Amino acid sequence: MTYCVGLCLKDGLVFLSDTRTNAGVDQVGTFRKMSLFQDKDRFFTLMSAGNLAITQSVKEILLQGQLFKGKNLWIAKNSYEAAVVVGDAIKQVYERDHAALEKSGLEFNCNMIFGGQVKGEKPRLFNIYSAGNFIEATPETCYFQIGESKYGKPILDRVLNFNTPLNLATKCALISMDSTLKSNISVGLPLDMLVYEKNSLKATKLVTLDDANPYFAMIHQAWGEKLREAFNSIAEPSWSGAHKSSDISTPAKKMGIVPINHPPSKARAQKATRTTKATPVNKAAKKVLPKKATAKKK
User: Fold this and answer.
1) Coil/strand/helix, residue 161
2) Which among 14, 73, 160, 236 is least buried, having the fewest CB atoms inside 10 angstroms?
């Protein structure tokens, strides 16, 4: 599995991916999920999750510059057209491989985060699906995740917005990744991180991190300590109602408490038994006799 996160912010883009792949517990490998594409008037980043054979094929098609309706990443007029090219590359691999995958009982599994900038337009970010279609990030929804996304999502939802500065967003992305590393063994170091500054058209801040990286090691230790401190600073629930701010016994307004069921009393149990035994006699269905046919008068 993998975890990749991409952020589209006012001042630029942030990309972060792990490098672990696995096909079972005894087939764990390290493969880079991030690919960069740069020319004098454009800069793109691609991160992938899913079947490694599929994503590697898509990446190779893009690197070779194959044309789709006269376009590739190097001559697309804007980032939207570039995202269409990535989608077309996925569709080509699907047409070639999906039948063989189905015969082997495998799904065509491929998901990508693609983003960057063409000179003259703003930085843009896309989430591209297995079908080759995609959605674009907006100021209201300014990040995408692929792979094992659930563990790293809470910090993004609580901290991140479109106006978040790049340095703060970098810290947020790394905490999101650290939370995922802590809870999921299928995501692992090293990490590839790119912080793209708007209009730079180059990788000004690109780094590969492992457990020896001082900043990431500090993030890993400090985040765990601060979580425990925050947890311990929150008051425990009060069942007596003595402390209003932590009173947990206040009932809900729209629904009552969960009913507690008890075994029936002996008298009720005996009555139920007598009723059950009497049912075949007392409530026997009466046989309905057919009505006699009335002769029609001539």
Assistant:
1) coil
2) 236
Residue with tokens 């279609």: 133
Contact partners, residue 198, CB within 8 Å, separation at least 6? 10, 11, 12, 117, 122, 123
Question: 92 with 130: CB under 8 angstroms?
Answer: no
Please, which pLDDT band fits residue 295 given cuts at 50, 70 and 90?
A: low
In the predicted structure, residue 290 carries a pLDDT above the cut 70:
no
Prior bond to 154 cis, omega within 30? Answer: no
State pLDDT tens for residues 13-69. Answer: 999 999 999 867 777 899 999 999 999 999 999 999 999 999 999 999 999 999 999
Selection from 11, 19, 25 nearest residue 210 by Cα? 19
The answer to whether 193 and 207 are in contact (CB under 8 A) is yes
pLDDT exceeding 90 applies to what percent of the chain? 84
Nearest to 203 by CA among 212, 194, 211: 194
3-state secondary structure of 150: coil
How deeply is 236 buried, as exposed, middle or buried, from its count of CB atoms within 10 A (0-12, 13-18, 19+)?
A: exposed
Tokens of 124: 């843009």
Judge whether 156 and 172 are in contact, CB under 8 Å. Answer: yes
Distances in Å between the alpha carbon of 118 and those of 40, 127, 247? 9, 18, 56
Round to whole Å and give the CA distance between 262 and 187. 48
Burial of 164 (0-12, 13-18, 19+ CB in 10 A): buried
The set of long-range contacts for 211-217, using a CB threshold of 8 Å and a minimum separation of 24, is: 215/174, 216/174, 216/178, 216/191
Strands (DSSP E) found in the chain: 3-9, 12-17, 20-22, 28-30, 34-39, 42-50, 110-118, 124-128, 134-136, 143-147, 191-197, 205-209
